[in-house]
């Protein structure tokens, strides 16, 4: 896809960060998508800005153009590779089904955003973009991070899953024998990339050369 700057990138992926814990997952996902050569469309909720400042060394600006600059500097993005949209930027391509098609990931996804998406609230651009993804049958991946889950949360997840939305909880596995928090973050990001059909080398797929040894419980079942 050639953007307004004349630079050609791979198909755009929309990444929205909302106010759940786990901002590191969303920021890392942006970095990896940039490294893979994709154009990345970013939306950050007001609550997500607070979470990012709390959980990471970064404090991202709210103004879209300054946010583009901050994320581009962090990820090493080329000019025009990252686009950021404000809460009520209704002219953004993600706001309409007639806009450029894009898979969307909400990472992390707060239970408030989950509820709004499940009910089609569309009170802000993140919710509207998710609504568009659902109605246009595009890939939509939600990465909730909450514990414990109430019946309300579970019912919303079930309703969305039945609509074809991928519910991918931020619950990293340990069979790859993580050595750091970064390894745990990459586990979830790798699972997201798998859903998007994007090749990566963050960790080996199960059963491939280089994967961790088969756990004893699995060996007993073979």
From TrEMBL:
Record-annotated Flavoprotein domain positions: 12-196
UniProt entry tagged with the keyword Endoplasmic reticulum: no
EC number from the UniProt entry: 2.5.1.129
Residues where FMN binds: 19-21, 45, 110-113, 145
Keyword Zinc applies: no
Residues reported to bind dimethylallyl phosphate: 175, 191
Pfam families: Flavoprotein (PF02441)
SUPFAM superfamilies with a match to the protein in the record: Homo-oligomeric flavin-containing Cys decarboxylases, HFCD
Domain of life: Bacteria
Keyword entries, A-Z: Flavoprotein, FMN, Prenyltransferase, Transferase
Enzyme category, top tier: transferase
Reaction catalysed by this enzyme: dimethylallyl phosphate + FMNH2 = prenylated FMNH2 + phosphate
Similarity field: Belongs to the UbiX/PAD1 family.
Function noted in UniProt: Flavin prenyltransferase that catalyzes the synthesis of the prenylated FMN cofactor (prenyl-FMN) for 4-hydroxy-3-polyprenylbenzoic acid decarboxylase UbiD. The prenyltransferase is metal-independent and links a dimethylallyl moiety from dimethylallyl monophosphate (DMAP) to the flavin N5 and C6 atoms of FMN.
NCBIfam families assigned: PRK06029.1, ubiX_pad
Protein's name in the database: Flavin prenyltransferase UbiX
């Amino acid at each position: 896809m050639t953007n307004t700057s004349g630079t050609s990138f791979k198909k755009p992926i929309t990444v929205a960060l909302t106010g759940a814990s786990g901002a590191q997952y969303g920021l890392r996902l942006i970095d990896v998508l940039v490294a893979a050569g994709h154009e990345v469309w970013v939306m950050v909720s007001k609550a997500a800005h607070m979470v990012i400042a709390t959980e990471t060394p970064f404090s991202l600006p709210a103004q879209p153009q300054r946010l583009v600059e901050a994320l581009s500097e962090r990820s090493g993005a080329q000019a025009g590779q990252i686009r950021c949209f404000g809460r009520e930027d209704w002219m953004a391509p993600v706001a309409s089904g007639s806009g450029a098609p894009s898979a969307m990931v909400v990472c992390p996804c707060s239970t408030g955003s989950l509820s709004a998406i499940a009910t089609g609230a569309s009170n802000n651009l993140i919710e509207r973009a998710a609504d568009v993804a659902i109605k246009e049958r595009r890939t939509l991946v939600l990465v909730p991070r909450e514990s414990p889950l109430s019946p309300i949360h579970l019912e919303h997840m079930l309703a969305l899953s039945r609509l074809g939305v991928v519910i991918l909880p931020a619950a990293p596995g340990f069979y790859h024998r993580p050595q750091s928090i970064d390894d745990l973050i990459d586990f979830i990001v790798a699972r997201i990339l798998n859903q998007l059909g994007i090749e990566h080398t963050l960790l080996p797929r199960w059963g491939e050369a280089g994967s961790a040894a088969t756990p004893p419980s699995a060996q007993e079942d073979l």
